[in-house]
Design goal:
About 35% of the residues lie in helices and about 20% in strands. It is built from ten helices and 13 strands.
């Protein structure tokens, strides 16, 4: 058992929240019960995750994608009302960490995806040093890297193969980080892995020869939240359950 403020303080320090400029508030977004016995983790604070956490008798939820984002106009209507109503009625604490959870060198989304692919980061790149770059165990082709992603994440990625060079340096940044592709190229990557692809990236890959692989926003970010929540649970003696709400995006 732990007090929600203990958990909040621990996470603020662990994830170095203060050093990031983010798109929304990191930390305790919805206050629930003071004492936490069971913690559920998930990717996004969707209604389905909240309902599953209620069914699991959780006192707190830890997610990567919370409820509040830059540009929100402050009205509690529609989907936001439905989610908040459930959280407040069942007194469930909601903790959300966006960029800090991406960036943690061991427990974050990028580190955990790298571990899945046996990629060890030896450098950072991009805005706020969110991108990771390192070498695979041995050089491989873009097709082989795509097959590895499909095997590890259970989803066929979109692969733009570049010029077919052996991939000796691989860069990655989970989620919607397609805008980091040019920074990855400048950092010396032979390939870049992220969650999403937009129209320009295919052209950049063909014109620079650097492979681009998009493996799904949700699929690439399933690992940070449960890793952080497991650390919290071990620290405070809590029960922890990861609940994956599938998302095709």
């Amino acid at each position: 058992m732990a007090h929600r403020n203990q958990i909040d303080s621990h996470l603020q320090a662990l994830l170095e929240v203060g050093r990031f400029k983010d798109y929304g508030p990191n930390g305790l977004q919805v206050e629930g019960k003071a004492e936490v016995h069971k913690l559920v983790s998930g990717v996004t604070a969707s209604l389905a995750l909240i309902e599953a956490a209620i069914e699991a008798q959780a006192d707190a939820i830890l997610v990567h994608h919370g409820l509040f984002w830059r540009g929100h106009d402050g009205r509690v209507t529609g989907w936001l009302k439905a989610r908040l109503e459930k959280l407040l009625a069942h007194q469930i604490n909601l903790f959300a960490y966006h960029l800090p959870l991406d960036a943690h060198p061991e427990l974050g989304n990028n580190a955990q995806l790298g571990a899945k692919l046996k990629l060890v980061a030896d450098g950072r790149f991009g805005e706020q040093d969110l991108g990771f770059i390192g070498a695979p165990e041995k050089p491989l082709s873009a097709a082989a890297l795509g097959a590895l992603l499909q095997f590890r994440l259970g989803r066929a990625p979109t692969v733009v193969e570049g010029d077919g060079r052996p991939l000796k340096r691989v860069a990655w940044c989970t989620g919607g980080a397609q805008g980091y592709f040019e920074a990855a190229i400048a950092a010396g990557a032979d390939a870049f892995i992220t969650g999403e692809i937009s129209e320009p990236q295919a052209h950049y890959a063909r014109e620079t020869g650097v492979a681009f692989l998009a493996c799904g926003h949700h699929a690439s970010e399933r690992y940070g939240a449960p890793a952080v929540a497991a650390q919290v649970a071990e620290t405070f003696g809590l029960e922890h359950q990861f609940i994956d709400i599938d998302n095709p995006a």
